[in-house]
Design goal:
Blueprint (H helix, E strand, L loop, with lengths): L4 H9 E4 L3 E5 L2 E5 L3 H10 L9 E4 L19 H17 L2 E3 L9 H8 L7 E4 L13 E4 L2 H10 L1 E5 L2 E8 L8 H12 L7 E6 L1 H5 L2 H9 L8 E3 L4 H7 L8 H11 L12 E6 L6 E3 L7 E3 L13 H14 L14 E5 H4 L2 H11 L7 E5 L3 H9 L2 H8 L2 E2 L20 E4 L14 E4 L2 H10 L11
Parallel strand pairs: 3-4, 3-6, 4-5, 6-7, 9-10, 9-12, 10-11, 15-16, 15-18, 16-17, 18-19
Antiparallel strand pairs: 1-2, 2-8, 13-14
Helix pairs in contact: 2-5, 6-8, 13-15, 13-16
Length: 466
């Protein structure tokens, strides 16, 4: 029978099938500096990591993005400092490759996986972080796990999982100028809701994704979790293979040819059936931003803030009312009339080289009117951006150029938005307090964030493009 991309990977990795759940073999596992709970549980039970070579670790959540040359002494928060210290200790004890705070390959876990070629088509990949769905852009089944599940993977390289349903989201057409992968995924979540993918693995299909560069695909799959999905996936193709070729952990020589042959048969077969189907018109997607406190509360930049009374669903109506109170916004306000106090460009969603290029293209030769900073997704991205002179564009425009890390995404490492201030952010979540207590977050693409930095308000970036 014709099978989907997900079904092929799932069936290849089942060790024991009990019908409603299966024991899966996990090919690769990623860790970050918040994984100390799992290592502590291993130590308590006297266990060791079963296959350390199949794990890769990086310090990203708690590391500072400024003053890093001062080392651990620059980490003011004692808990964060201890987590970074334990990261190095646990990695050394268990023989796991670790990219510590000052390692030349350090970066956000969901950036360095694809960047190093550790993430590959057809594999199962886990990480103790919800945005592990990012790696599905490479044609992998990648999903986030909790501390107890992480302990199980480290100890056994296997994991019990319930089989999810499948949802195909097809976006055909051609994206217009100024429209990116971030706009596409925000438009998708606005349509299906933050629970639209619950219990499903999403496969993104259609001409828009086939034409999209790998960085855009990674952005889309990254935010699959914001639609409630277990994972997001895009079938591997020549774009995937060209991106992977020559990377550190990618197959080499004859093994590359063998891998390529296996990867080419992974895409969903013609006639394969999905549990649910959704479609969008890519031609109609505009630069999109959030106005509320979930990624679902998003609209094209040309729109106005909706009246909660217009929502048919009582729960969504109540949430919209609460969101507008928190965001201090009024129904009927044009999105382009919203003033911005801070700008943050980076994260595992939009901290890759193409993202920085898009922001720099808007900022070049201009000055910002609000404070903000740029934190590359990895130390390698930072080096590549500096080799192209992008850092000078950011600095000359008036933004801070910082080191790599999760930074202002979740305000875990001292990078936060002050209470009551409004941020244009390229991150993935706009929940209350996500970027700091009382912070108000508007999610948008790097180009849109750059436009907001220049004008001091939400701005349609197309008006600043030549």
């Amino acid at each position: 029978m014709p099978r989907t991309l997900f079904e092929k990977i799932w069936q290849q990795h089942v060790i024991v099938d009990k019908g409603n759940e299966a024991l899966l073999y996990i090919d690769r596992n990623l860790l970050h500096d918040g994984a100390f709970h799992a290592f502590g549980a291993l130590a308590k039970e006297g266990r060791k990591v079963r296959k350390p070579r199949q794990s890769l670790a990086t310090a990203d959540h708690y590391v500072p993005t400024s003053g890093r040359e001062k080392g651990l002494a620059n980490v003011i928060d004692t808990d964060a400092r201890e987590m970074i210290r334990l990261f190095d200790v646990n990695g050394a004890e268990h023989g796991i490759r670790c990219f510590g705070m000052n390692h030349p390959q350090q970066g956000i876990v969901h950036v360095i996986g694809p960047e190093t070629g550790f993430t590959q088509p057809g594999i199962t990949l886990t990480c103790g972080d919800s945005h592990t769905s990012t790696h599905g852009a490479m044609g992998a089944y990648a999903f986030g796990i909790g501390a107890s599940q992480l302990k199980q993977v480290l100890a056994t390289q296997c994991l019990w999982q319930r089989r999810p349903k499948t949802l195909r989201i097809t976006v055909d057409g051609k994206l217009g100028a100024g429209v990116s992968g971030k706009d596409v995924v925000l438009a998708i979540i606005a349509k299906i809701g933050t629970a639209g993918g619950t219990g499903h693995v999403i496969e993104y299909a259609g001409s828009v994704f086939r034409a999209m560069a790998m960085e855009g695909r990674l952005t889309v799959c990254n935010m699959s979790i914001e639609a409630g999905a277990r994972a997001g996936m895009i079938a591997p193709d020549d774009t995937t293979f060209q991106y992977l070729a020559g990377r550190e952990y990618a197959p080499k020589g004859g093994q590359w040819d063998e891998a390529l042959a296996m990867w080419r048969v992974l895409p969903t077969d013609d006639g394969a059936v999905f549990d649910h189907e959704v479609s969008l018109d890519g031609n109609a997607i505009e630069p999109t931003i959030t106005w509320g406190t979930t990624p679902e509360e998003a609209l094209p930049v040309s729109a106005v803030i909706p009246d909660p009374a217009s929502f048919a669903d009582a729960n969504k109506r109540a949430h919209a009312e609460s969101a507008l109170r928190y965001m201090d916004l009024k129904p009927g306000t044009r999105l382009t009339d919203i003033e911005i106090d801070r700008v943050f460009i980076g994260t595992c969603t939009n901290g890759r080289l193409d993202d920085l290029r898009a922001a720099a293209a808007v900022l070049k030769g201009r000055k910002v009117t609000v404070q903000g900073w740029v934190s590359p997704g990895s130390t390698q991205v930072k080096r590549d951006a500096e080799a192209e002179g992008l850092h000078r564009i950011f600095e000359e425009a008036g933004l801070e150029w910082r080191a790599s890390g999760c930074s202002g995404c979740a305000a875990m490492n001292g990078d936060f938005v002050p209470p009551g201030m409004r941020a244009a952010s390229t991150s993935n979540r706009n929940f209350e307090g996500r970027q700091g207590k009382g912070a108000r977050t508007h999610l948008m693409s790097p180009a849109m964030a750059a436009a907001a930095a220049i004008t001091g308000r939400v701005t349609d970036v197309r008006k600043l493009m030549s």
